[in-house]
Amino acid sequence: MDRVCVEKSMTDMIDMRNVSYRYEEDGRDVLQNINLTVHTGEFVCVLGHNGCGKSTLAKLMNGLFQPTAGTVLVSGMDTRSENDIFRVRACAGMVFQNPDNQTVATVVEEDVAFGPENIGVPQKELRDRVDRALAAVGMSAYAKKEPHRLSGGQKQRVAIAGVLAMEPKLLILDEATAMLDPRGREEVLSTVKKLNREKQITVVWITHFMEETVEADRLLIMDQGRICLEGTPRELFAHTEDLRALKLETPPAAQIAQTLREHGIDVPNDILTPEELTDALWAFRSKT
Amino acid sequence: MREMTLGQYYAVNSPVHALDPRTKILSVISMMALIFLCRTFCGLAACACFVLAVSFAGHIPLSKMMSSLKAIYFLLLFTFLLNVFFNQSGAVLWQWGILNLTSGGIKRALFMALRLVLLVTGAGLLSFTTSPIELTDGLESLMTPLKKLRFPAHEIAMMMSIALRFIPILTEETDKIRKAQTARGANFDSGSLYKRAGAVVSLLVPLLVSAFRRAEELAMAMEARCYHGGEGRTRLKVLRFHASDAVAAAVVLALAAFIAADQTVIVSLLPDWTG
Fold it and tell me: What's the pTM value of the predicted model, to 2 decimals?
């Protein structure tokens, strides 16, 4: 994803100010004083290991949870406002981890229709929205199938279609690839990237797989309820030591480049993808 | 993934399958009422013709229809014997100790058995030709007027469809847990009844725990997709009656008319066969 799409529109999709959250009144803060802005059209990745608060952060973004302190604005609407709550949820669509536990209906197209049905979209328009949403994730051929017969990646794409049918401006994916095989992960990630690029849907991608964050516009790294590092993936992955301290592993290509540098082979220190590594190695070879 | 069918749905394309589920539900209810009201063999024969005709129109093979009787073989035999020996009307044909076989008893027993067979196969027709989803949609639509009496029609239909949705998932999960527990030394297939019951606990507890976890996640996902009960909800698929539904209704009405006529005319002419 290029940086251009961030610059072209700078209105805020999500604005979190001094947000803290705790599950029980006298419990500890799961999130502590989070300040976060997500711009329209941006692809933001949130990275962190289990229990760092990233799922809680996601649920605050569409009003499933209310902040204990601070405010969360989604497209300018306060998630606390009872009048706006369904508008907030339709605007900030959410995809969860387990594909089986977010499918409501026994037929794919009826499941996709579930969201818009809830917000009272007229029947004539429903058909159209369902067809468009299924086409956008490349699942039109499966409209009449039963969800439990699909592969994990396909189920997640149906879940994304179910959210798209509500015509959201923002897509929040809470570890949507964690239960999928590598092929399914690739399917879902490329679908979401395409939606971000072609339909200008803002994406908040939450994951613990670092290699999925490589192409993000911005990367937030969370630890113990705080955002502890923030920047482009390229900036952050150069801080190998900091990342290791947070028990996060840099992508394999970056690791190899790091090891190569330690052994005196001069490759750049911001390599992220295998392609970049190949290029660097060719460049190195032609130099010697 | 294991192939499994929900309920008894027999998936073919037929005019009966294409009927509106509401038509089929109401028809089956009326037919059952008619079978209960009907007091002559002639009327039952008409009902039998109706059941056979519908199964033919619905492309349901006879063997399939018969298979729905499997569950009631014992009940059939029991009612037959009970009626044969406890109805003592008509001429005595055979006697052994306190057991009397009478012509009236045989007639009565045959009548009751036929009635039972028709009831079960007739109800079977509904489940053979209507998928569980259609049934749920049909029931919700039929129950909607009851909403005025604060009857939770939408909620019941939603629960039914979610239950249907999770049957394959939970079946698969039961399979997984069974294998996992077998690998840990559980034995589900042998041992005393008491031991086997104990082994089933090791299957049920994890299944129940996971079902609760799933329910919680599903509730969260539904809420995230703006679910807030049936109020203000629109539907992708709206049930509509077609010309064929009118035809079906006409056929059921004709059957009702025939049975009504049969009751009044024939019963007045002939002595009551059924006692």
Answer: 0.79
Residue A37 CA to residue A55 CA, distance in Å, equals 17
pLDDT of residue A46: 93
Tell how far CA B225 is from the center of its chain.
Answer: 34
Query: What is the percent of chain B where pLDDT is above 90?
Result: 26
Q: List, for residues A13-35, the tens digit of each pLDDT value.
A: 899 999 999 988 888 888 999 99
* ipTM of model: 0.83
Say if B123 falls within a structural domain.
yes
Measured distance between the N- and C-terminal CA atoms of chain B, rounded to whole angstroms: 55
pLDDT, tens only, A146-191: 888 899 999 999 999 999 999 999 999 999 998 888 889 999 999 9
Residue B30 to chain A, least CA–CA distance (Å): 29
Contacts of A206 (CB under 8 A, 6+ apart): A45, A46, A54, A55, A57, A58, A172, A173, A174, A175
- The answer to whether B133 contacts A107, with C-beta atoms less than 8 Å apart, is yes
CB A92 within 8 A of CB A174: no
Q: What is the three-state SS of B39-68?
A: CCHHHHHHHHHHHHHHHHHCCCCHHHHHHC
Residue B75 lies in a domain: yes
Smallest Cα–Cα separation from B239: which of B151, B135, B119?
Answer: B135
How far is C-alpha B3 from the geometric centre of its chain's CA atoms?
A: 22
pLDDT score for A193? 93
- The answer to whether A179 faces chain B, any CB pair under 8 Å, is no
Angle formed by the axes of helices A252-262 and A274-287, to 10°? 30
Q: Is residue A64 part of a domain?
A: yes
Q: Which domain holds residue B65?
A: 15-130+241-269
Distance CA A58, CA A66 (A): 11
Share of chain A above pLDDT 90, in %: 45
Q: Under a CB-based contact definition with an 8 Å cutoff, are residues A31 and A53 in contact?
A: yes
Task: Please tell me the distance in Å from B223's CA to the nearest CA on chain A.
Answer: 7
Residue ranges of A 246-275 with Cβ closer than 8 A to chain B: none
Note whether residue B5 is domain-resident. no
* Judgement on whether residues B164 and B203 belong to the same structural domain of the protein: yes
* Whether B217 and A102 lie within 8 Å, measured CB to CB: yes
Same domain, B191 and B216: yes
